[in-house]
Protein 1
Amino acid sequence: MSDVDPGAEIIRLRPGAAIYEISTDELQISFPNYTATFTSPDVTNAVRAILAALDGGAPRASVIETAAAATGFSPDVIDYLVDSLLGSNCLYVGSEEQIGTPLREFQAYIGDADADFEERLANARCVLVQPAGDRGGIAEALAELEVKVDVIEATPGESSSPPLDALREALASATVVGCWNVPYRSPFARTVNEIAIQHPVPVLFGTCEGIVGRVGPFVLPGNTACLECLNDRLLSLAGGPELRAYRAYRLRNEEIVPPPWPSHPLFVRAVAALFGVELLNVALRRPSVTSGGFVEYRLGDAGAERHPVLRVPGCPMCRPQSSKRLAWDVRFQAPAVKGSA
Ligand SMILES: [Zn+2]
């Protein structure tokens, strides 16, 4: 057999598959969530030959040739069965260099290992804004998965201008922004929200504030509620003292990067990992559970809860300001027409 072209398409058994030869006329390929069963001696023989020919991954033509030679079936029959195996997600199509990385193994497992995935991964450009010294491991984890990430570290207590200027510059080539562990009510987070909306580039927020971890909102400029909409909704339940504290907090932190709120260090890492999963998800343009809402995790509670966030009418960040309405008593005079008198 000739050497395989390094970029050529090959077919492989989907990761996680377990093969059970039940009898001479029944063969099962089983996954955690479903099972494909092949019956009749001819079909099971042919499927067994195809699986043997795959040998960890091989070009489709050579699989068909090898399996047809081993069984004596027509290549058309083998080709049909390869289609059946692909259609039932027992096999997937990839290329030689896609094999072996954990992310691609997972994508193949969930049935999303097509050429489009490679293109989406190659085109994704994340900008990650996060507190200096509190990396949470997100940037490193994404870089290990071959996601391009520009990290902007904001030093708590120092001027917010340098990281915000760096963000404006980085947005030129970004497809998505992640803003991690910056207090949601801070002027710094508000400005990240504003810059992303103005550019416009989608932005995902995530944070740990005490015993509460949040992933989202994912803000699609012009389409979904923004971070200020969320702050407004949360504050609508607040009393006078909390509102005063909120305003004082904003004034005090107007020009500086605020420190993250205290939280359990391992809880921060756990929520950071979930934030990283969601950031990769939106960077790959996959459906998101955080657009128009956020997922909340509470330390000590089981499970997570999704909260929808509706856009706030007149939100100064995400609603274009409407023109002033005409006064009710405006009068328009009919023009005088010559010769009508
Ligand atoms: Zn808004």
Protein 2
Amino acid sequence: MSCPALRSVFLVLFLVFSSASAFALLNPHVKPEPCESCHMKTPTKADGEAGNYFLLKDTIDDTCHVCHEATCCKPGSLHGSNHPSNIKDWDWKLFRRPKTLPLYNGYITCSTCHTHSIPAPPSYKMVRIVKVDGKKIDWTELCRDCHVGY
Ligand code: HEC
Ligand code: HEC
Ligand code: HEC
Ligand code: HEC
């Protein structure tokens, strides 16, 4: 291998490690949230109502995956094996359209079940409509919002 090639390998390794540690230090869900962790440009309230979020990626899920593909969504992990996201078609006899949870353009996304900043306590992993009672976590109501007969 020639020298410049070696140097670029080290440069790549350096960038990988330095960006990994930047993620470890920065939790974008803690106030004051760094808006640019997820938005190219901060939407106004009116933009939001029109569905224009100016996210870093094309979809909400892809934006969350920038940091969370490994922690939540790889096959075998909780969501990979357990829960579909970024879908808009399903068996309507088994899964109804949620009454409380938001869909985005008809899609179930990460934001359907999670808020994107840590809400006022009690909260559990930023999950919506979850009941926290001491150590007991109850998300029956969340699942029931869509699953018939849950
Ligand atoms: C962790 C990622 C993330 C961060 C950090 C973030 N947002 Fe968002 N934001 C989203 C996503 C995803 C949506 C799309 C809909 C939703 O989840 O509510 C959104 C939607 C919005 C909307 C439109 C819908 C609404 O809720 O009114 C506004 C306005 C907004 N963000 C402003 C901000 C501002 C201001 C900041 C910084 C203080 C910020 N966001 C930080 C991910 C983020
Ligand atoms: C810039 C990187 C980044 C982006 C983008 C990002 N997150 Fe996170 N997220 C983190 C970090 C860092 C933590 C805290 C450490 C951890 O639990 O992995 C975290 C934690 C979480 C947690 C666990 C909270 C807890 O109490 O255990 C959830 C749920 C979560 N994020 C959901 C989302 C969702 C939904 C989106 C997209 C709207 C998103 N994240 C986008 C970096 C990110
Ligand atoms: C159908 C609802 C639902 C959807 C959709 C959903 N989540 Fe979750 N998520 C949950 C629940 C419930 C938990 C808590 C599970 C637990 O603690 O066992 C959770 C936990 C998490 C955690 C914490 C994992 C841990 O081990 O601490 C992260 C990170 C996360 N979700 C990110 C995401 C991202 C990113 C998406 C979109 C790709 C997403 N979630 C979509 C319901 C959902
Ligand atoms: C926003 C609506 C929604 C919510 C909330 C929701 N689900 Fe689902 N869930 C679905 C849909 C739709 C499918 C089927 C997707 C498909 O067939 O492609 C599904 C599929 C599943 C599956 C895969 C096996 C099956 O029955 O097809 C499991 C397991 C599951 N959900 C568990 C849960 C649990 C546990 C909760 C509560 C923490 C929950 N879901 C909350 C909509 C939801």
